[in-house]
Amino acid sequence: MNYVFMTDASCDLTQELVNEIGVEVLPMEFHMEDKSYLHYPDCRMMSLSEFYSKLKEGIDSKTTQINYDSFYKSFENYLKAGKDIIYTGISTGLSGTYNTCMMAVKDLKEVYPDRKIIAIDSLCDSAGLGLLIYLAGKKYSEGATIDELKEYIEDTRIKVCHWFVVEDLDQLKRGGRISAVSATFGKALQIKPLLSVDDEGHLINVAKIRGKSNVVPALVKHLERDAENLKDSVVMVAHADNPEGAEELKKAIKGKCKEVVMTDIGPVIGTHVGSGMLAVLFLGTRNLKS
């Protein structure tokens, strides 16, 4: 292959899935207890169990976007080797990472005018980006050209539907996404936010689900309502330290689609949603009605 397909660690793909499709994943940084860690798909610097245990203990976590130097150096390694690059990462609706990437791309094109460097705003977040990367990675591993892959990503990104249910209201409170009062009443009434992603890649609070028993049915309802050609589709189930919920969701979905792919939510997104989050990702029509 004369080009490299790249993304960032916010895609929340496991190392096994990354190996399957051959994508290169740029690590992303998070900070806990005055220490900095890079998150890779293989979780080499901190395991997910340790990360979520620390969150449950009330230890704060903060994330930072990939900086200019990291993009420049990572891309230049491949350009020097005579490879072209196509990159798509976390949506501009959630992070400034893409804009930083474009600054590095602009400068690299001046140094390597004969090389092709393509950067695409995914309009997707977390495991939604993961699904986009996984499906595009299948095309990549099957031998698609860089222009064919670019066209596929640009055509598919807006079709990625994201539905998340957040369990940890305290983490949303710490991040300033809900008030302390909302968190207190939400926990008392067992209310869980149902989130999605709009056409610009922004995370949107769509509705509230009351009671743990209603989480999986709500996610399945949106899958059945919004999916395109569900019977022949790949559906991704993602969770933040909630393997039991993920298995329950997988069981509810299995038989409705061609394949269910499981993955874990890492520290980049886990910092903001906390433990317990459950998500279903699929191709269809983005519909923000509850």
Number of strands: 13
Number of helices: 11
Classify the oligomer.
Answer: single chain
Q: Catalogue the unreliable spans.
A: 177-189
Overall radius of gyration: 19 Å
The name of the CATH topology of the largest domain is Rossmann fold
End-to-end gap:
43 Å
Give the helix proportion (percent range).
Answer: 40-55%
> What general form does the structure show?
globular
Largest sheet: 6 strands, mixed
In percent, how much strand structure appears in the residues?
25-35%
Widest sheet: strand ordering: 10-9-8-13-11-12
Structural class by helix and strand composition: alpha/beta
Number of domains: 2
CATH architecture label of the largest domain: 3-Layer(aba) Sandwich
- By CATH reckoning, the class of the largest domain would read Alpha Beta
Mean pLDDT: 92
What's the helix-strand series? EHEEEHEHEHEHHEHHEEHEHEHE
Function: May bind long-chain fatty acids, such as palmitate, and may play a role in lipid transport or fatty acid metabolism.
InterPro entries: DegV (IPR003797), DegV_C (IPR043168), DegV_domain_contain (IPR050270)
Protein name: DegV family protein
Keywords: Lipid-binding
Summarize the structure.
This protein is α/β, with parallel strands linked by helices and 290 residues long. It has helices at residues 15-21, 48-56, 68-80, 97-111, 126-141, 146-156, 169-174, 180-188, 215-226, 243-253, 267-273, and strands at 3-8, 24-26, 28-32, 35-39, 61-64, 84-89, 117-121, 160-165, 191-197, 203-210, 234-239, 259-264, 278-283.
